[in-house]
Amino acid sequence: MRLILKKLTSSEGVRQSGITIIGNSLATGLSAIALILISRILGPEKFGEFSVGFAIVMIITRFNDAGLSSTIFKFAAEDNDKKAKLAVFSLTMKYRLMLSLIIAIVGVTTSSYLSRLLHLENSSLVLIAFIFGLSTAYYEQLLTSLQALHKFTQAVIVNALQAGFKLVSAVFFLLLNLSSVPIIFSLYVLAPLFPLFFSKKLLPDWVKLNLKQRYPKQKKLIIGMAKHSGIAFILAGLIEHIDILFVQHYLNSYETGLLGGTTRISMMFALIAYSLGNVLFPRVARYKTKEHLSKYIKKAGLISTMSLFGFLSFLPFSKFSIWLTIGPEYMPGSFVLNILVAASFLAIASIPFVALFYSYDSAWYFSISGVLQLAIVLIGNFIFVPIYGLKAAAWTRLITRFSLFLFTLITGLILYKQKYGFQKETT
After folding, report:
1. Which of 315, 314, 340 lies closest to 261 in space, CA to CA?
2. 328 with 258: CB under 8 angstroms?
């Protein structure tokens, strides 16, 4: 074990992963405390409606991204030319603005119908999600730009700023004994706007966006990759959050609150996968030789193995984590939490192998893996949630993560063998 740890910590990528994971975990700790306060203020039923609104925000954020973050990781990270990087940043921002306008129009015209479909007592939540929720897309633009520039410390600061805003807001709600779901939800989803006021200080001086310039070379590259990665990214948002909407539609706000509360705890572990991907994706995009990739695959295997031990270590503390965080009112969701945390650790195990496809230039992987997962999620929730209830939604998420892990691992190794073979490198 000591040899494994020494081998991992000697890598610059691992050190950067450590900074990102630890920093983002601390920032997410602030967000988690904010959600703990909100969940306790609202209780399971009202928090169920809050969770529905939050799920909608996360889904429309994926549509607003449409794979643009992946193109930033790919093209801004691998090109050392500042003008080329600036072209990528400018074009992706322009496309986000265009998509935001479309999403806002859709939200205004469909919010009443969606509120009735989801049986929401606070019908304004859908409209708030579509309008205020767009702020997350621009937070993601700043964050991915910093990560593509390998400004990982600044990226952690951005995360900490929005998390701190959420915590201060939650304390404010608690002190005023405020339990209005629309007000609490509005301030929560607007929190990602706060770090944008500091973007000029966090980004290098040469990053000055030009939304009028055409940049034909970068435009072709961005659209070419986004056609594939965009589908996968949007599908990933649906996969991650649509179960909340199914539960709200078929069951009730109380059970939605149980799923929303336990999901928030499991997301603490899912953040590790997110942070790991933010470091590995731009780094592995640079790996073009067999020597680099073979060493990386060994480390990827070690990380995946360690994720299994991480899940086993969590199990004895499952019920205590609910009692300590979202509160004893959510204790009926303890079994659901175990399933969701298992799914999060499977996501951690998958990420190192997903990063391989940034090196392979196999954009089709993102589309196929997304369709595979969405099919499982839709079938599982549509057929089994009305019959078996809340547990069916959790089991569906676990099966989806396991299917992704197997597909990614097998496909990644097959492509490696086709391109490089498994024979040892010659010296």
Report:
1. 340
2. no
CA distance 329 to 392: 21
> Radius of gyration over alpha carbons of the chain, in Å?
21
**Contact by Cβ (8 Å): 408, 378:** no
| Cβ atoms 216, 87 nearer than 8 A | no
pLDDT tens track, the chain, 427 positions: 555 545 545 555 555 666 666 766 677 778 878 888 898 899 888 999 999 999 999 999 999 988 888 888 777 766 667 787 888 888 888 999 999 999 999 999 998 899 999 988 888 899 999 999 899 888 988 888 888 887 877 888 888 899 889 999 999 888 888 888 999 999 999 999 998 888 888 888 787 887 878 888 878 888 888 877 787 778 878 888 899 999 999 998 899 999 988 888 887 777 777 777 767 777 777 777 777 778 888 888 888 888 888 888 888 888 888 888 888 888 998 899 999 999 988 888 888 888 888 777 777 787 788 888 889 999 999 999 999 999 999 999 999 999 999 999 998 888 888 877 654 544 3
Q: Are 78 and 225 in contact (CB under 8 A)?
A: no
Q: Specify the pTM.
A: 0.77
What are the phi and psi torsion angles at 45 (to 5°)? -70, -50
Whether 97 contacts 268, CB under 8 Å? no
Helix and strand tally (H, E) in the chain? 18, 0
DSSP 212-245: S---HHHHHHHHHHHHHHHHHHHHHHHHHHHHHH
The separation between CA 229 and the C-alpha centre of its own chain, rounded to angstroms, equals 14
> b/e string for 372-402 if b means 16 or more Cβ within 10 A?
bbbebbbebbeebbeeeebebbbbbbbbbbb
CA-wise closest residue to 119 among 244, 247, 248: 248
Query: Of the candidates 376, 347, 362, 341, which has an alpha carbon nearest to the alpha carbon of residue 412?
Result: 362
What does the alpha-carbon distance between residue 66 and residue 296 come to, in Å, rounded to a whole number?
A: 28
State both tokens at 276.
Answer: 């790991």
Rounded distance, CA 279 to CA 13, Å? Answer: 7
- How remote is the C-alpha of 398 from its chain's centroid? 16
